[in-house]
Amino acid sequence: MTNYEFRYASHPEDAKKYGTEELREHFLIENLFQDDAINLTYSMYDRYIVGGAKPVGKDLPLETIPYLKSDNFLDRRELGIVNVGGKGSVSVDGTVYELDKKEALYVGKGTKEVTFLAGGTQPLFYINSAPAHQSFPTTKVGKDKAEVLELGETKYANKRILNKLIVNSIVETCQLQMGITELVEGNVWNTMPAHTHERRMEAYFYFDLEEGQTVCHFMGQPQHTRHIFMKGNQAVLSPEWSIHSGSGTSNYSFVWGMAGENLDYGDMDVCPPDQLK
Ligand SMILES: O=C(O)C(=O)C[C@H](O)C(=O)CO
Ligand SMILES: [Zn+2]
């Protein structure tokens, strides 16, 4: 079963007026993982699709959805998959790729068949997809291939390990970039100092958050911020004009994914913490 929903893009002046319910309705994606279903959200932020696939008792083929008006999901798109659950497998045009937790698979434009296979130790496949103009080879990015950076300091409660997975130094893509950031125990702030990048939108997916804990995700223009309280296994859309940062009541991990004008991971306009409002 494939479920899908649609999100329009918001003007920053409009978003300033949103209350709690509107913010959650427009930016928060609450139900990504449903047994034996693929749940997709098609957004108008760079036509980025955010989704989840949870095969429990049957294999789940990635079917096209009406918003695409294409015969196959990847006729004009590329796809990034990050497994955030137990070990699992994905079939891509007949080749099976095994993904451990926190491993990624890039699937290029023109691929006809992508099937999330039941079995393993209950995988949870987090999906991001963006329009593509060129076909690049399907490539698994295992733990051995990830580029790992240590960021932040415990003194500032933001010590974290950033794992670049689907980035242009590892795999060729048209516009997709994805990776995982893991907060070190005792640290709670991600992406602080915060930044914007008007060249790209971004989506965050929070996971490995202890039951009963929460992450307060911050968004908005740097001098007009808003917050959304999030649970584990939920995603949030970050417009190109918005910061994306969060503080948890414990440590946690998140998958970041981006698309837009460039593939330059370092293209960020940093906002000093004491300038945020
Ligand atoms: O912890 C961080 O800092 C991040 O993970 C930042 C994201 O990768 C990002 O926002 C990239 O633009
Ligand atoms: Zn960013």
UniProtKB/TrEMBL annotation:
Domain of life per record: Bacteria
Entry binding sites for Zn(2+): H195, H197, E202, H244
Keyword Isomerase set for record: yes
Entry keyword set: Isomerase, Metal-binding, Zinc
Biological process according to GO: D-galacturonate catabolic process; D-glucuronate catabolic process; pectin catabolic process
Enzyme Commission numbers on file: 5.3.1.17
Cofactor note: Binds 1 zinc ion per subunit.
GO molecular function terms listed in the Swiss-Prot or TrEMBL record: 4-deoxy-L-threo-5-hexosulose-uronate ketol-isomerase activity; zinc ion binding
Top EC class of this enzyme: isomerase
Pfam family, one: KduI
Pathway(s) the chain acts in: Glycan metabolism; pectin degradation; 2-dehydro-3-deoxy-D-gluconate from pectin: step 4/5
Name of the protein described by the UniProt record: 4-deoxy-L-threo-5-hexosulose-uronate ketol-isomerase
Organism: Pseudozobellia thermophila
